[in-house]
Every structure is written in C-alpha cells, then in structure tokens.
Design goal:
- The complex is a heterodimer of chains A (about 200) and B (about 220).
- Chain A contains five helices and eight strands; from the N terminus they run βββαββαααβαββ.
- By secondary structure, chain A is α/β, with parallel strands linked by helices.
- In chain A, the strands form two sheets. A five-stranded parallel beta sheet of chain A has the order 5-6-7-3-8, sandwiched between helices. In chain A, strands 2-1-4 form a three-stranded antiparallel beta sheet, covered by helices on one side.
- Chain B is mainly alpha-helical and about 220 residues long.
- Chain B has nine helices and no strands.
- Classes of the chains: A alpha/beta (about 200), B mainly alpha (about 220).
- At the A-B interface, strand 5 and helix 2 of A face helix 1 and helix 5 of B.
Amino acid sequence: MLRVRNLGCARGGVPVLTDVSFEVAAGQAIILRGPNGVGKTTLLRTLAGLQPPIEGEIDFPEEEGAYASHADGIKTALTVTENLKFWADVHGAALPATILETFDLSDLRDRLGGTLSAGQKRRLGLARLGVIGRKVLFLDEPTVSLDRFSVKLFADWLQDTHLAAGGVAVIATHIDLGLAAPELDLTPFKSAADANGGSDEAFL
Amino acid sequence: MIALLLRDLRLAFRAGGGFGLGLAFFLIVVVLVPFGVGPETELLSRIAPGILWVASLLAALLSLDRIFALDFEDGSLGLLATSPLPMEGAALMKALAHWITTGLPLTLAAPALGFLLSLATEAYAYLLISLLLGTPALSMIGTFGAALTVGIRRGGLLLSLLVLPLYVPTLIFGAEAVRRGAEGLDPTGALMLMAGITAGCFALLPFATAAVLRINLR
C-alpha cells in the first residue's frame, strides 16, 4: 500500500537521508528507529507531503495520508469534543461513537483543550487519527508524554482498529509499542556530511 | 471549508480570541482625532473621510498576525495542509473569518463615528458602501501578509511593513469615494475601482497565500 523508492530528503536545505527504500503492505506497520537527528521527522514530513523529496518516489493512495507531529494541533479555547468534531468536519467524516471511550476521553468531553494535561492532550491528538478515517498514518513519536496505560490504549487501537481495517502506519518511536511490526534503522541511510553541500538550496 | 470558518469564528468569540479589539481600537482612534484637531466642525468634516478610512485600515491591521500564527504554533496548520481541505480554500476562509470579525463590525460602526467627526450627511451611504467593498480586500491582503510572515518571531511589525503599502490603493479609492460623496460629486468611478481591487485580491491572493504557506511549512 505504501511504497518508498530511493527517497532522499533534506532538512533546511541540507540532505539528511538518501536512498531510503521500503514497502508496507495493507494492515502492516513499520517502526522507524535511529538516534536523535538522524532524520526520522524529516522523513515523515516528506512522506506526508509537507516538504518535497529531493529524489526518489513515494507511492500511496492519494488523499489517504495523515500526519501526526509533536504538536497536536489542539485549540485551547475549544472543548475536547469540539476539537475532534472540527477535524471530522474538515475530513468530511462523522465522529465515531466510541472514539472518546477508545482513547479514554469520555470524562473530559466538555473540558477546554487548554485545561488538559500534556498526556491528555496527546490522547486527544491521537484520537484525531481515529476520527479522520485516513488509511496511511505517519506518526512522529506518538507516545511522548503518555503513561503506560495510554500507550497500551493507543497500541491496541492501532492494532485492532486501524491495522485490522487494512490501514498502514509508519511510526517513529524510541519505545516498544508491542506491535508485531518490522523495524527500519535509518542510520545506514544517513547522507554523507557534505553531499550536495555548497548548493544555494540552503539559502532559499 | 465551512468547518474552518466556523471554528475560526468560534475561536474569535471565545476568551482570548480578540474579537472586538480592532473595533475598540477604531473607536478610540476616531474619538481621539477631534481632541487633537480641535472642535472646528468645518475642518473635521473635511478630514472625516480620510480619518475614518485610515483608522479602519489600522484597526484591520491589528489582528492580522493572529490569522496564521496561532495555528502554526499549535501545529494545526501542518495538519490542515495534509487534510483534504485545499490550502487555497483554507486561505480564503481565514480571510473571510478575519473580515467577519474585523471588517464587518468596523463597517457597521463607521456611520456612528462619522457623526462624531461631523461627516457630511450625503456621505454616510458612501462611507458604508466603500467600507463594505473595501474591507474584504484589507482582510485578503492581510491574510497574504500573515502567510508571508508565519513562523517568524516578532513577525508582527514586519507584517505591518509588508501590508501597509499594499493597502494604499484601497485607501485612496475608499477615502476618495467618501469625499466625493460628501461634496456631492459622483463617486461611482472610485467605488468601481475599489470593487475591482477587492475582486482581484480575492481572485489571485488565495493562490499566492497557499503557495507561500506551503513554502513556510517545509
């Protein structure tokens, strides 16, 4: 469902990854590993279409990708339900009846986004993924600031709802989610220090 | 697209949304002018069209930097960019939301303030029409400026410097239409030119705004 061939991506005009290739079949996830700064976020942003690749191909069904970054995009002046409803409306989807239960947000449904704790915000940010109904998820450290119980909630949702329905997930994480998914270490794909260096790209 | 418009309006009316700030600023600036100029009715009445237009321009400017900055900070702009909503549509809706929360209240409040500046009776209708036609252009140009400076720390001042020169044509024709109305001349030409500017802005700037946003999100 998702195929990446000879992909190269750059951060701030400096190439960070070259020649990345992998494939993920429907119902499968892939875990990106590698030390800080190796280019996990850059790769995910490139896959999600937020920045153009410098070379290579990315192939997945059009209008099926969704990106979850470090920032959750939560409006502090809107309630939990309003936040979710907005993203459902933007994506033309209906709010699934059980989404609040799935992410343990039922008790918080009328709380303002600004009054949530970091972990609760994260759960709300992840619940957005369950609302928008996209098949190909690009997740950048989805479990930051989640406790063990919430990590389990999220991993269960990913496995039982998203992947079971034929979805795909590319996950950058440093912890063990308990998913039966292959791991891809990005260290070997790191660009040589001055590959393509000296181009004007860095100043554009 | 409507969802984004409704969300932005709702956010503007909630605590910290800043609805009414521009309007209050407009009121205060216009009220200050007679204090500065003195109580000469004739002079005030002559400068009223210009004052009302300059003040509404500055009031519109006040809330521009919030159009994209907040969405950029909390990450929703990146999420919107990967949503099915085209960036052009998002830009248009952002401009529309800004107009409804700033331009429209200014337009409706302007006649009351024209009275404070002893604006000529014949000019009220033209003041209302010219603001109604002109303030959407202010919001759209401002949205473009906000997209240019999104992600820049302290981009507010830079935004003003970028946007104010672009406001000049709207200001010239807007104030001219009201002045001609006040003097009993035919303001149709100025009004049509201003409507043309507004239409042109709405035809072109959503695309420019979307392109700039995509670059700034990289």
